[in-house]
UniProtKB/TrEMBL annotation:
Gene3D superfamilies tied to this protein: 3.30.70.260, P-loop containing nucleotide triphosphate hydrolases
InterPro entries: AAA+_ATPase, ABC_transporter-like_ATP-bd, ABC_transporter-like_CS, ACT-like_dom_sf, MetN_ABC, MetN_ABC_transporter-like, NIL_domain, P-loop_NTPase
Family label: Belongs to the ABC transporter superfamily.
Cited Pfam families: ABC_tran, NIL
Name under which the protein is recorded: Methionine ABC transporter ATP-binding protein
Keywords per UniProt: Amino-acid transport, ATP-binding, Cell membrane, Membrane, Nucleotide-binding, Translocase, Transport
Boundaries of every ABC transporter domain copy: 2-241
Organism from which the protein derives: Micromonospora rosaria
Keyword NAD: no
Function: Part of the ABC transporter FtsEX involved in cellular division. Has ATPase activity.
Subunit-structure text: Homodimer. Forms a membrane-associated complex with FtsX.
Phylogenetic lineage: Bacteria, Bacillati, Actinomycetota, Actinomycetes, Micromonosporales
């Protein structure tokens, strides 16, 4: 659905060239929720703006639903953009227009006739649960309601792709959960492909099927969430399930076990099979959008030689086992 090939975007700042996106290639499948995560300055927002060519990359190509946007210009590009909706961090609503008026504005720009606009606005506000707030102005709406208006407006052109720029970062936790639930519902009901950027790990846990991790303008790892978590040394696993520095436990081998697709029943099996007093130091296993996953830090009695058979058993069972430094 979305193919990014070798994207590069640079800026001039204080007389020098700054690379914001450095050779990024990504593939987003139709119907999935794909997150791009990274710290501030990693290049996430620039990458997202390149996807709908709000910023044109210096190098590389952007293809959405089989159409190479980077090969288009003028009216053809504007028409192609209508198949992609955009949800903004700070809502970007027109303060002089009601909720209905903000949604209608997008349809006016598209040249939709008045009668069709009214019908479509009512349909969209119902879709996001705001029928009773159609006549309210942005100043009369809560943050979550404003974002629902923004989502309705983004869906006005019946897009196949929805881009989300930190859509929940300005919201409180309860409202965030509500908006994430709405986005997942829209993804499933409308078959929307959603590409979002975020620095919030709860968004990844609750919403994302796949993820790319960005650092200094580059993608350091990308793929389905549960597959990334299972990779040794995964940055995503460390961010989603931080375990902190290992404890100093004498006569003990500490190991970090990454779990995907199951709970922690292997701990009891390990204790029985090898007659070990296994201690769970910390960690968690949770239900994510992409499947059940987590990390557990275990303390196994004995040195590395004594615990080697137990560690080998865990690995043979398909678990990722790492010894923390």
């Amino acid at each position: 659905m979305i193919e990014l090939d070798g994207l590069r975007r640079t800026y001039r700042a204080k007389g020098r060239s700054v690379v914001a996106v450095d050779g990024v290639s990504l593939s987003v499948r139709a119907g999935e929720v794909f997150g791009v995560v990274g710290r501030s300055g990693a290049g996430k927002s620039t990458l997202l703006r390149c996807v709908n060519l709000l910023e044109r990359p210096d190098e590389g190509s952007v293809t959405v639903d089989g159409v190479e946007l980077t090969a288009l210009g003028g009216a053809r590009l504007r028409a192609a953009r209508q198949r992609t909706g955009m949800v903004h961090q700070h809502f970007a609503l027109l303060s002089s227009r009601t909720a209905a008026g903000n949604v209608a504005f997008a349809l006016e720009v598209m040249g939709v006739p008045r009668a069709e606009r009214a019908r479509r606005v009512a349909e969209l506000l119902d879709l996001v649960g705001l029928t009773d707030r159609a006549d309210a102005y942005p100043a009369q709406l809560s943050g979550g309601q404003k974002q629902r208006v923004g989502i309705a407006r983004a869906l006005a052109g019946r897009p196949k792709v929805l881009l989300s720029d930190e859509a929940t970062s300005a919201l409180d936790p309860e409202t965030t959960r509500s908006i994430l639930g709405l986005l997942r519902d829209l993804n499933q009901r409308l078959g929307l492909t959603i590409l979002l950027i975020t620095h919030e790990m709860d968004v990844v846990k609750r919403l994302c099927d796949s993820v790319a991790v960005m650092r200094d303008g580059r993608v350091t790892e990308a793929g389905p969430v549960t597959e990334l978590i299972a990779r040794p040394g995964s940055e995503l696993a460390a961010e989603l399930f931080p375990l902190g520095p290992p404890p100093a436990l004498p006569d003990t081998t500490v190991v970090d076990v990454t779990v995907t697709g199951s709970g922690s029943s292997f701990v009891a099996d390990l204790a029985r099979r090898f007659d070990l007093d296994v201690q769970i130091v910390n960690g968690t296993v949770e239900q994510l959008a992409g499947g059940r996953a987590g990390r557990l830090r275990l303390a196994l009695p004995g040195d590395a030689d004594r615990t080697a058979p137990a560690v080998a058993h865990l690995r043979a069972a398909g678990l990722t086992v790492e010894v923390p430094a």
